[in-house]
Design goal:
Blueprint: H1 2-43, H2 52-74, H3 91-122, H4 135-138, H5 140-164, H6 174-178
Helix pairs in contact: 1-2, 2-5, 3-5
């Protein structure tokens, strides 16, 4: 059962990561197209691009936050490395340390999620060119925050399972056992 649950989670991870990657690719392509169009219109003024800034703001914001969620899901975010674990005695202590790191990440991202929802729900502003609600600009923040909260909870659960039973952990490395 444990292995089948892990296989299901891995499939969900891969599917969500694929969706997030394609969203980022589409957003990047849209940004590239709009920037290219803006350059062309400067030399061949066939249309007004008074809407340029607000659409670019929407696309850049979404790209940043969906990209952050993709990085969070795939554990590809940059870090200074795990240089503390080698100084901790025993495998269980290393897993406790990693659990605490995941807990700190969860606290941070939960605060981000809370304030992102508050911002989105309470904004009354509208964009200048299209007069659309800025809630659309801010929607990417709570969506990606929710994804990151769920993955932080998942990562904490996996680390807690390793703390409880380090011997059954799939990720116990030779380095963990030697120190």
């Amino acid at each position: 059962m444990k292995n089948s649950a892990l296989l299901v989670m891995n499939r969900i991870d891969k599917g969500l990561l694929l969706v997030l990657e394609w969203v980022c690719i589409a957003l990047f392509a849209a940004i590239t197209a709009i920037l290219t169009l803006n350059i062309i219109v400067r030399f061949v003024p066939v249309m007004s691009m008074h809407w340029f800034d607000e659409i670019l703001e929407l696309l850049y914001g979404a790209l940043i936050f969906y990209g952050a969620a993709a990085v969070w899901v795939s554990h590809s975010h940059f870090s200074v490395g795990d240089w503390i674990s080698k100084y901790l005695p025993g495998v269980r202590a290393r897993f406790v340390y990693r659990f605490v790191v995941e807990l700190a990440s969860l606290v941070f991202i939960a605060i981000f999620f809370w304030y992102a929802v508050e911002l989105m729900m309470h904004t009354e502003e509208q964009t200048t060119a299209f007069a659309m609600s800025k809630k659309w600009l801010y929607a990417c923040m709570p969506i990606t925050g929710a994804i990151m909260v769920l993955y932080s909870v998942k990562n904490m659960y996996l680390q807690l399972a390793k703390v409880i039973n380090p011997a059954s952990s799939i990720e116990v490395t030779k380095e963990d056992l030697n120190h």
